[in-house]
Write a structure and sequence with these properties.
There is one protein chain. By secondary structure, this protein is mainly α. It has one domain. It contains 8 helices and no strands. Helix 3 packs across helix 8 (about 135-195). It is elongated. This is DedA family protein. It is found in: Cell membrane. Its main location: membrane.
């Protein structure tokens, strides 16, 4: 049932989802609330079901991740401090922002690469890198490497999960049929006793 729904999705919305949510994650800080890997997992499962070619999902997800973080870098460079002041303190603590910015200043590109693999950092590190003065070339290089590895890994996990969905659906289908048969048998035994 889930695989049928994924199979019936046209490729265009699957690819748009795989591109847009990772792209919006850092460029609009949407990732603070809704991590982009959810879209990539679904798109990977849809690719397994035949809803979109796997190679296209990999390209769309990687492009969204890399370009979105590049936009986040420029947003952080231009408006980062003002935007951070507007975020709720429960989501982003000033002390944590200072530590992350200091880490980016000390470690540079490797901090950008590692930040890619944690949801909250993934949404904030590009902007913090722009705020910290990390050179664009260093950011772009490490961002591309992290984006490629992260997006490909998550899409492939979704693809593998799509294979597992078929097995789970089949087993759940068998279990529900057995349960229905037991309920029906129980009703056949109990119902005549209550009638008479």
């Amino acid at each position: 049932m889930v695989l049928d729904a994924l199979r019936d999705l046209p490729p265009a919305p699957v690819l748009a989802l795989a591109f847009l949510l990772p792209a919006l994650e850092a460029s609009t800080m949407l990732g603070v609330v809704f991590p982009g890997e959810v879209a990539l997992l679904v798109a990977g499962a849809a690719a397994h079901a035949g809803g979109a070619p796997l190679w296209a999902v990999l390209v769309a997800g990687t492009a969204g991740a890399v370009l979105g973080d590049l936009a986040g870098y420029f947003v952080g460079r231009r408006w980062g401090h003002a935007l951070l002041r507007r975020l709720p303190r429960r989501l982003v603590r000033p002390a944590a922002v200072e530590r992350a910015t200091a880490l980016i200043r000390r470690r540079g590109g490797p901090a950008v690469f590692l930040g890619r693999f944690t949801a909250l950092l993934r949404a904030l590190v590009p902007g913090l890198a722009g705020m910290s003065g990390l050179p664009l070339r260093a950011f772009a290089t490490w961002n591309a490497a992290g984006g490629l590895l992260w997006a490909s890994g998550v899409v492939l996990l979704g693809y593998g999960a799509g294979a597992g969905l078929g097995v789970v659906e089949h087993r759940l289908g068998l279990a529900s049929e057995v349960l229905l048969a037991l309920v029906a048998a129980g009703a056949v035994v109990v119902w005549p006793r209550h009638r008479g």
